[in-house]
Amino acid sequence: MRTATRVAAAVGAAALAIALPIPASAQQTPTAAEKAERIKYMAEPPPLPADFPVPSGSDPDTPYSLVSNCIGSLNQGTTDLKNKPWGQTQLRFDELHQFATGKDVLVAVIDTGVRAHPFFGGRVQPGGDFVIKDKQGMEDCDGHGTEVAGIIAANPPATSDIGFRGIAPEARILSIRQSSGNYKGKRVTAARPEGEDLPAGTLETLAKAVVLAADQGARVINMSVDNCRAVAEGPITNAERQLQAALRYAYEQKDVVLVASAGNTGEKGCPDQRNGVDPYKPTHIVTPPWFADYVISVAAMSRNGDPATFSVQGPWVTVAAPGTDIISLDPATNGLANLQVLANGDQTSIQGTSFAAPYVAGLAALIRQRFPNLKAPEVVNRIKVTASHPAAPDGRDNLVGHGMINPIGALTTLIPSEQGVADDKALDVKAALPAPQIKNWAPTQVALIGAAGGVLLLLLTLFVVHTVRRTRTGTQREARGSA
Known about the structure:
Elements: H1 32-40, E1 65-66, H2 86-91, H3 93-96, E2 106-111, E3 124-129, H4 144-153, E4 172-177, E5 180-187, E6 196-200, H5 203-215, E7 220-223, E8 227-230, H6 238-253, E9 257-261, E10 284-287, E11 295-301, E12 319-322, E13 328-329, E14 336-337, E15 339-341, E16 347-349, H7 353-370, H8 376-385, H9 407-412, H10 442-482
Parallel strand pairs: 2-4, 2-7, 3-4, 7-9, 9-11, 11-12
Antiparallel strand pairs: 1-5, 5-6, 8-10, 13-14, 15-16
Helix pairs in contact: 4-7, 5-6
């Protein structure tokens, strides 16, 4: 997660055509040996024991104090961002909202908190706070959570000429603050048993936040928070087990659609490169995306249609969504933002898989409104099946998963399995070729021999006739000479 801050000049959004989705190929279920191989190389996590306890709690893990000023704005009221972000054009928001708006669907944003920006129209509610408990998730000193929530549910007044909208502009937001770079507290680590000052946010508190959101009735949870570590550091940790248990609880018992960002290169321990060349032997794992049995992991796309250069790849990536040149809510003002300031003070456009994930979380909210009887696995399947698949085996790869999401397709496609129609099965059909035809060459041979004999007889006759004629001609000449 980058420290985010604020608005400068507007960025023009180019209209990009959506590629029509192709039918998703049936995913081949790995054999027991293949699955064991993937677990061995940590392309998949090991199964969670059935009796592993579900983490619980809502208190910060240690006292935290504000060590840096809360985020400010570069925009002093002099710059308006009127244009639509390219992602809205790409995903066809103008047509999308005739099918669903996410009305009354509760989406939990587990992040740096969410400020009650006026463009939310009072649809943000407190859910909990693992940094400063009394704030209940309604403070955002880092700016990240407000921007993420804006991509999901912002809805500027219809009377304004602002082009920006959230993908689910009538969804409700449940804000749970789980992390912050501006708050620090003394936590015990393996390297520092006596404790060291670290930013707020751990896998343990993320696990508790997931359970807290699920128990408060969230239908979708967005987690634009990642932890990345090298595979070489060892097998699954207890903290990762806790997160795995929380995700399983939310997905299987509470019927929650879980969405996470795929991770950015060079951040939170992720490598500077994509993540190794072998699809099933990653050099690093990213959580929560690693737990792909429960989580939709979202890669970032750039406006030219290519995967964003910073998007971490892995066998857990599910789909992709716009993740560059982002416009969203400014957490420090009542306006919009399209810039962020990095730790070194440089300004850059807002980008990251953190901002691709909320497009998918918002899409899940739209699906849950339009198809209220669908269970979480069916919502996930609808998102995957209708995506614009890459040209790869089974219609997915490790970089963009099943491809760029297609929201209109996700809201309008008829999915046979939802109607009780079983999936097509592969048939072991043998090639029914005609039996070889044995040619009887005898008539041909007789004909060829007869023809050859006739030709030979003709040639012999011509030779005899020619010889007789020559003999006769010679005799006549001799007779005339004697006379």
